Amino acid sequence: MPHHTDDLLTVPPDCKVVILGTGGTIAGRSVGADDPVAYVAGQVAVRDLVAGVPALAQWPLALEQVAQVDSKDMGLPVWQRLVRAVELHMAQPSIAGIVITHGTDTLEETAYLLQRVLQPAKPVVLTCAMRPATALVPDGPQNLLDAVVVAADAQARGVLAVCAGQIHRAEHVAKVHSYRLDAFSSGDAGPAGCVEAGQVRWFQPLALPEAPDTRLLAAFLAAPALPKVPLLTSHADADGDLVRALLTLAPEGLLVAGTGNGTLHDNLVAALLEAQHAGVRVVRASRCAQGRAMPDDRNPFPVAAPLNAPKARLALALDLLAERSGR
Ligand code: SIN
User: Does the beta carbon of 142 lie inside 6 Å of ligand 1?
Assistant: First the structure.
């Protein structure tokens, strides 16, 4: 439901939103405003991003620079800092919601991680940009403003992503285009809602949060490294050499993005069976940009929950971590 008000962008009373900066193209800087490719991500401080959006001047905001990275380089240390920061701020009664500025490239993995380990009851809204902050017409300022509006919305909860006016849920969001401003899709599920001129319009109700898995959270925050789970793809002319080479690195799991419905080249199946017999957890997903791998009893390897391959890889690593920590 939209806020019923004549004033666009009216701040809900007592609403404080925290904005956590992690880098990305939204904080990118290029030498020339006319070059949308040759820029360095993660350069502009979150306070300067907020200062660049005049409409945010009226919002009660708190800002924290958690990291300043190109999200292709995202990894456990930044994730642990981010999870700690979100947990800390969420626990404050005065905080209505949290916005995270993030690179587009691994945004869906961070979104899945935050949902899985925190199950937040308050909204945690990731936002991003496809053009650097120094572009002639940057998309980051509008995305940031929209994300703050969503984070303050009374119906918002759980981990969401806001980009190009659309609101996506953590489990569905995926980057599906390398260049377009609306680079994200929720696939068959469709977006959860949209932001139009400062008003939120929900298309679907958001699920109630599940009880947080406090043991998984503690194990995640204490882990020196996540369980080693390489991501492989099945393809024409595949052989098993890569799998056999990987076995020398002692992986705990292997996530295989199969063709179509998660089907695998026979040569790969032979090598993966060797891995499975050696105690490695092998799980399948689909390499297709949309749709999912369906369970098939005839296949020796189970399918992941309906997640795309990068999220399924992370899900398997978290499953193994949870098992390792004695659940
Ligand atoms: C990144 O993911 O940090 C760089 C690319 C982007 O944000 O679009």
Answer: no
135 ligand 1 Cβ < 6 A = no
Q: With a 6 A CB cut-off, is 103 part of the ligand 1 pocket?
A: yes
Of the candidates 178, 154, 156, 181, the one whose C-alpha atom is nearest the C-alpha of residue 169 is: 156
Identify whether 110 is a catalytic site residue. no
Lowest mean pLDDT among 26-30, 36-40, 152-156, 229-233: 36-40
Residue whose CA lies nearest to ligand 1 atom number 2 = 103
Give percent above pLDDT 70 in the chain: 94
Instruction: Pick the residue whose CA is nearest to atom 1 on ligand 1.
Output: 103
Q: Tell me, in angstroms, the distance from the centre of ligand 1 to residue 178's CA.
A: 10
Q: Measure 25 CA to ligand 1 centroid, in angstroms.
A: 5
Domains of the chain: 4-202 (3.40.50.1170), 228-325 (3.40.50.40)
- Verify whether residue 233 is a known catalytic residue: no
Q: What is the pLDDT of residues 98-127, one digit of tens each?
A: 999 999 999 999 999 999 999 999 999 999
Contact (Cβ atoms closer than 8 angstroms) between residue 267 and residue 238: yes
Given a contact cutoff of 8 angstroms between Cβ atoms, the answer to whether 21 and 68 are in contact is: yes
Of the residues 5, 10, 101, 104, only one is catalytic, namely 104
pLDDT per residue over 259-311, tens digit each?
999 999 999 999 999 999 999 999 999 999 999 898 888 899 999 889 999 99
Query: Distance between CA atoms of 125 and 275, rounded to whole angstroms?
Result: 39
Please identify, by atom number, the ligand 1 atom nearest to the C-alpha of residue 73.
3
18 Cβ neighbours under 8 A, 6+ residues apart: 61, 62, 63, 64, 89, 95, 97, 98, 99
Q: Give mean pLDDT, residues 121-147.
A: 97
- Annotated catalytic residue, options 22, 25, 106, 110: 25
